[in-house]
């Protein structure tokens, strides 16, 4: 009897350690079954949640782990959207392959873009990324084939090719679900790899890492390109959902970067769980106060200030400190 009691006591911390991860797995399974229990409006909201989650994870990977604070990620949202429209409208490529190809092409475009952006440091880098996004917006407005400044709509035949409405909605939901979940898994697996160790070391002390022979510039550029491609994938989905794209909507600072920064900061920058919690808070606030006009933005600002006054590490940092909550562990322990 005493041996059995000892086994229970020994295994209890292990159960508690993995309980949050198990709860997350259950939540993923529930969301995977959403088309069978959620209404049409709920599904559309969840699609947007997953897409914003991907944007938040990518910005967090760039700023929270690599130290590259960008306020120009809308450049890649817009590029992803416009390339997706060009590939479907002019090349006749089916929707899902066009999204993947748009992401790859955006990653290629990010290579010379990185050559420009990485000549700047600190606040100058942040401003430089915003200027690059504005250049892309102005260029998109000059392309007459894509509607110029007034934009372009997705042709009806492209929409019909996705099948009946029910099939189309199912396809779009699981596409957004895959984008959101894969963004979390990608960041988690990356941080548990040798690249993740390099990122954590760069965040702690870039100078010390360089003295060990790590090419920090190469690591940063690679992360910049990867996050650009993934951001473009989310952007192509946003405009597939809207069925229309314009330069102002595609390269909007508020919609694609300011809100994402809010999500990451309020949830907890430099953590995988922070953007997950932040996107839940963001959409909860939006559902409650989106009809309040300017008061909605004031509520968001007040919420961010309140969280920062309570704990600068964000909501997840506060919960982790109080409850020891770890959902997606990335650190290594010698047991």
UniProtKB/TrEMBL annotation:
<keyword id="KW-1133">Transmembrane helix</keyword>
<keyword id="KW-1003">Cell membrane</keyword>
<dbReference type="GO" id="GO:0005886">
    <property type="term" value="C:plasma membrane"/>
</dbReference>
<dbReference type="Pfam" id="PF02653">
    <property type="entry name" value="BPD_transp_2"/>
</dbReference>
<feature type="transmembrane region" description="Helical">
    <location>
        <begin position="260"/>
        <end position="286"/>
    </location>
</feature>
<feature type="transmembrane region" description="Helical">
    <location>
        <begin position="14"/>
        <end position="37"/>
    </location>
</feature>
<protein>
    <submittedName>
        <fullName>Branched-chain amino acid transport system permease protein</fullName>
    </submittedName>
</protein>
<keyword id="KW-0472">Membrane</keyword>
<feature type="transmembrane region" description="Helical">
    <location>
        <begin position="292"/>
        <end position="310"/>
    </location>
</feature>
<dbReference type="InterPro" id="IPR001851">
    <property type="entry name" value="ABC_transp_permease"/>
</dbReference>
<dbReference type="GO" id="GO:0015658">
    <property type="term" value="F:branched-chain amino acid transmembrane transporter activity"/>
</dbReference>
<feature type="transmembrane region" description="Helical">
    <location>
        <begin position="139"/>
        <end position="159"/>
    </location>
</feature>
<feature type="transmembrane region" description="Helical">
    <location>
        <begin position="221"/>
        <end position="240"/>
    </location>
</feature>
<feature type="transmembrane region" description="Helical">
    <location>
        <begin position="75"/>
        <end position="96"/>
    </location>
</feature>
<keyword id="KW-0812">Transmembrane</keyword>
<feature type="transmembrane region" description="Helical">
    <location>
        <begin position="103"/>
        <end position="127"/>
    </location>
</feature>
<dbReference type="InterPro" id="IPR043428">
    <property type="entry name" value="LivM-like"/>
</dbReference>
<feature type="transmembrane region" description="Helical">
    <location>
        <begin position="49"/>
        <end position="69"/>
    </location>
</feature>
<feature type="transmembrane region" description="Helical">
    <location>
        <begin position="171"/>
        <end position="191"/>
    </location>
</feature>
């Amino acid at each position: 009897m005493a041996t059995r009691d000892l086994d229970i006591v020994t295994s209890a911390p292990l159960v508690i350690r993995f309980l949050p991860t198990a709860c997350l797995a259950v939540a993923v399974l529930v969301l995977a079954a959403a088309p069978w229990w959620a209404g049409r409006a709920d599904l559309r909201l969840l699609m947007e949640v997953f897409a914003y989650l991907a944007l938040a994870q990518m910005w967090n990977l760039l700023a929270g782990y690599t130290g590259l604070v960008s306020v120009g990620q809308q450049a890649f949202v817009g590029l992803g959207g416009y390339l997706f429209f060009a590939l479907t409208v002019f090349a006749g490529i089916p929707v899902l392959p066009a999204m993947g190809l748009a992401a790859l092409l955006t990653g290629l475009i990010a290579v010379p873009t990185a050559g420009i952006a990485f000549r700047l440091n600190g606040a100058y880098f942040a401003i430089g990324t915003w200027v690059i996004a504005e250049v892309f917006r102005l260029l998109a407005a000059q392309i007459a084939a894509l509607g110029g400044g007034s934009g372009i709509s997705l042709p009806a035949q492209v929409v019909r090719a996705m099948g009946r409405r029910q099939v189309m909605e199912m396809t779009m939901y699981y596409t957004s679900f895959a984008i959101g979940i894969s963004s979390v898994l990608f960041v988690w697996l990356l941080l548990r790899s040798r690249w993740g160790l390099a990122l954590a070391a760069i965040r702690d002390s870039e100078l010390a890492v360089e003295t060990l022979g790590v090419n920090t510039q190469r690591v940063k550029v690679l992360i910049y390109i990867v996050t650009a491609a993934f951001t473009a994938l989310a952007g192509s989905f946003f405009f597939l959902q809207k069925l229309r794209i314009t330069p102002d909507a595609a390269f909007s600072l508020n919609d694609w970067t300011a809100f994402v920064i809010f999500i990451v900061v309020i949830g907890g920058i430099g953590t995988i769980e922070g953007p997950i919690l932040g996107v839940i808070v963001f959409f909860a606030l939006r559902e409650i106060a989106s009809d309040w006009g300017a008061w909605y933005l004031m509520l968001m600002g007040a919420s961010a200030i309140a969280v920062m006054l309570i704990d600068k590490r964000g909501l997840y940092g506060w919960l982790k400190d109080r409850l020891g909550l770890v959902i997606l562990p990335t650190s290594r322990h010698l047991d």
